[in-house]
Design a protein that fits this description.
Layout lengths: L4 H11 L3 E2 L2 H7 L5 E5 L9 H10 L5 E5 L18 H6 L6 E5 L6 H18 L7 E10 L4 E5 L4 E8 L2 E5 L10 H8 L17 E5 L3 E5 L5 E5 L4 E9 L1 H18 L11 H28 L5
Antiparallel strand pairs: 1-2, 2-10, 3-4, 4-5, 5-12, 6-11, 7-10, 7-12, 8-9, 8-11
Helix pairs in contact: 6-7, 7-8
């Protein structure tokens, strides 16, 4: 008698171990500082170029971002040059076309969603005491030509960047250092601003560089500025990301500060006062809930009777 599909899936998930991490390192350093890890994914069939071409065809157009890979660290987002190719041409010619591409939210595909979940299911028990309530699981795949540069930028999520092919160097900065990313830039990031940040040469001494080869990965703490330089061969990397209850709270506090600043108030920095943060978070949640209720009520007022 065949086992139920759910039982088979559960058994496979229990047996698969993709990440090789020291649990104590994760507990001590997660979201505090970047650290290296190992993984067994470089030969995974979902992460080979032919399968990625199929994935790119299937994803919605707004889930594929690509441009020239010949960028400056201090690249203005609005001036990012395109490469003049289609999505499929870019992937077919990635060895020579001098491009950078990211396939966004690949968990929209069931196979990639399963891979994401299997990886993050290995991480979740290790961080539950410091970042409980894992949520907003997402995954991105980066495909870059030799020599491509990803500008100095920031992402608002916990990130494990797992490298599959070629070599690349990622340099990571401390997201709590206001000299490399100001409070206002942090607020802009969580309220819809572009990920690129202004870069200055004096930042270089403060960054920590990690040279990645296939089978290596690095944890990038939430809101940590970073940039990437690809080596002499095509590069493929998988980024598995998520948030947590504490992470969502911090995001809400920065959104609240952005709201206050927009209305002429200079707010205390997030983390400067636990009491102020608690009051601000509660007030912001109430205000957001009230706004949602008003939108629903206004929608009801605007409905036509049948």
């Amino acid at each position: 008698m065949n086992a139920p599909a759910e039982a088979v899936s559960s058994t496979r998930r229990a047996q698969a171990r993709y990440l090789q991490v020291d649990p104590e390192v994760v507990r001590q350093r997660f979201d505090r500082e970047p650290f290296l890890l190992a993984h067994s994914l470089p030969q995974h069939p979902l992460l080979q170029l032919p399968r990625l071409i199929e994935l790119a065809r299937a994803l919605p157009e707004d889930s594929v971002e690509y441009n020239s890979g010949k960028l400056e660290l201090n690249q203005p987002a609005a001036l990012t040059p395109r490469n003049g190719l289609s999505i499929e041409q870019t992937l077919h010619e990635i060895e020579t076309c001098g491009s950078w591409m990211v396939l966004k939210n690949v968990e929209q595909d069931a196979e990639y969603r399963a891979l994401l979940d299997m990886c993050l299911d290995e991480i979740q028990p290790l961080i539950e005491t410091v970042a409980p309530g894992m949520c907003r699981r997402r995954s991105f795949i980066f495909v870059s030509s030799p020599g491509a540069t990803t500008p100095y930028h920031v992402d608002y999520e916990y990130n494990f960047l797992l490298h599959m092919r070629g070599d690349k160097t990622i340099t990571v900065w401390n997201g709590e250092d206001r000299s490399v990313m100001s409070e206002i830039e942090r607020e802009r990031m969580v309220t819809g601003g572009h990920r690129n940040l202004p870069y200055k040469d004096e930042f270089a001494a403060k960054g920590k560089a990690f040279n990645l080869r296939p089978g290596m990965g690095v944890h990038v703490p939430m809101s940590s500025p970073h940039h990437v330089k690809v080596g002499d061969h095509v590069s493929i990397s998988l980024s598995i990301t998520f948030l947590s209850k504490p992470g969502e709270r911090i995001r809400a506090l920065h959104e609240a500060n952005a709201f206050l600043r927009k209305h002429g108030v200079t707010p205390a920095e997030v983390g400067a006062s636990k009491t102020r943060d608690a009051l601000k978070f509660l007030t912001y949640r109430i205000a957001r809930a009230g706004t949602r209720q008003w939108i629903r009520f206004r929608g009801m007022l605007g409905r036509k009777s049948s």
